[in-house]
Amino acid sequence: MLNQNKPTSPPNLMRELNKALVLNVIREERLISRADIAKRTRLSRSTISIIVNELLETEFIRERGVGKSRGGRRPILLEFNPRAGFVVGLDMGATHLLTVVADLGATRLITLEESFSVEAGPDSGLSQATQMVETALERVGIERRRVFGVGVAVPGPVDYAAGMVVSPPIMPGWDRVPIRDQLQEALNLPVYLDNDANLGALGEHAYGVGKHVSNLAYVKVATGIGCGLIIDGRIYHGQRGSAGEIGHLTIDENGPPCRCGNFGCLESMASAEAIAQRAEAAVRAGQKTCLSQYQRRLTVTDVAQAALKGDALSRQLFEEAGRHIGVALAGLINLFNPGLIVIGGGLAEVGDLLFDPVQRTVDVRAMAGAVADTRIVPSQLGRETIAIGAVALVLRQIFRSPVAALAEGN
Ligand SMILES: [Zn+2]
Q1: If both were cysteines, with which of 111, 151, 195, 263 could 394 make a disulfide (CB 3.0 to 4.6 Å apart)?
Q2: What is the Å distance from ligand 1's center to 357 Cα?
Q3: Given a cut of 80, is residue 401 above it in pLDDT?
Q4: Range of weakest confidence among 334-343, 353-362, 366-375
């Protein structure tokens, strides 16, 4: 712990374990005396004293005021110091990069966003990402040694152990490129890589609308459609990292071709791109809609704006997309019985136009027993959800117990 680059060797394990225990107790309790730490951890007062001194020296904790006396001297209280270190969260989307720098309490110091093209390939993509992280760190002006790691979200299936994407449908040229290792070398910082929807789920679970919900799904509806699953408080990766590919669930066996090579996938019928394409086809077919005024390629934003102004065709397109998403979510609910489904990504911003048909379809199609406890809500953290999830990923690594680190072999 706190030294996540080096594996903890068994002789130091007990000490590291006790240190992690004490620090995590202080983080949880917010304000606690040495005597109460001893009670909570059942460690000896002398062990606590040594560990607390070490933690004070490295500034992970600080002394703050005094507590109530229980007969003797009033005890000095200790608190966790979130500014002892910083982490970076980077959300690499198909068309944007978003970077946040946060302290150890996940409070954001800066958020940067710029346009990006994942299709330009890994060479230019990774150098743009590196540059952006460097810029963010420079702007907040923190010492390099206080930066503990960078969490990176990518829009494809991730082999978490290998730190790379495997056969990603929307990342041409990135297949099996060692993204984690390359960024680690370029930034000279520990890097952790995961799928964007997985980190969206972790972000909402750790700091958003899914706090205290241990089973939840985060569905990102944007250029593509992805889903991250938190099961019993942990990201569920599946055998090879491709769990949650809800976008490639077949909705219509005879539906339109999908970029994955299949037909009638949810993504080919309800993603931002699918909605824009359907709108264009309707305009070409001469259907009555205010979208026919545009003399350029339509985007889903055009369709959303028209729908919000009452354009019947545009509303119909969102209604259909919502129904398709609802069919997929009903399946997800039947399989996993999540307590919460959070919908994020650009499409979630149209609100009820999408959520109403989603909810109606789910109510009809999911098993009554499974759906009873499942709320479907918009993301609370908005555009930053995935980057905050990337921050949470690094924080979990930093504060995990050394035993977990040993068990995971890194
Ligand atoms: Zn597909």
Answers
A1: 151
A2: 22
A3: no
A4: 366-375
What pLDDT is attached to residue 242?
A: 83
The per-residue pLDDT for range 282-329, each reduced to its tens digit, is 999 999 999 999 989 999 999 999 999 999 999 999 999 999 999 999
271 CA → ligand 1 middle, Å: 11
Q: What angle do CA 371, 255, 366 make, to 5 degrees?
A: 10
**Separation of CA 281 and ligand 1 centre (Å):** 20
- What number is the average pLDDT over the span 71-76? 86
For residue 377, with 0-12 CB atoms within 10 Å meaning exposed, 13-18 middle and 19 or more buried, which class applies? middle
**For 234-271, how does the pLDDT look when each residue is reduced to its tens digit (9 = 90+)?**
999 998 888 999 999 999 999 999 988 999 999 999 99
How is 322-351 classified by DSSP, letter by letter? Answer: HHHHHHHHHHHHHHH--SEEEEESGGGGGT
The answer to whether 303 and 276 have CB atoms below 8 angstroms apart is yes
Task: Say which residue the tokens 């093209």 belong to.
Answer: 117
Q: How much distance in Å is there from the Cα of 367 to the middle of ligand 1?
A: 25
Angle at alpha carbon of residue 333, lines to 330 and 335, rounded to 5°: 110
Answer yes or no: is pLDDT of 143 > 90.
Answer: no
**Which residue carries 């379809």 as its tokens?**
361
Confidence of residue 222 (pLDDT cuts 50, 70, 90): confident
- At residue 62, the 3 state secondary structure works out as strand
Q: Rounded to the nearest whole angstrom, what is the distance from the C-alpha of residue 130 to the centroid of ligand 1?
A: 31
| CA distance linking residue 387 with residue 391, whole number of Å | 6
In this structure, are residues 88 and 147 in contact, taking their beta carbons and an 8 Å threshold? Answer: yes
Lowest mean pLDDT among 118-122, 300-304, 335-339, 345-349: 345-349
136: nearest Cα among 106, 160, 109: 109
Distance (angstroms) between ligand 1 centre and the Cα of 259 equals: 6
CA-CA distance, 316 to 307, in Å (whole number)?
A: 8
Q: Can you list the domains of the chain with their CATH numbers?
A: 10-83 (1.10.10.10), 85-202+386-399 (3.30.420.40), 211-380 (3.30.420.40)
111 neighbors 100 (Cβ within 8 angstroms): yes
What's the CA-to-centroid distance between 382 and ligand 1, angstroms? 26
Give the Å distance between the CA of 350 and the centre of ligand 1. Answer: 24
Tell how far the Cα of 260 is from the centroid of ligand 1, in angstroms: 4
Q: What pLDDT does residue 11 have? A: 57
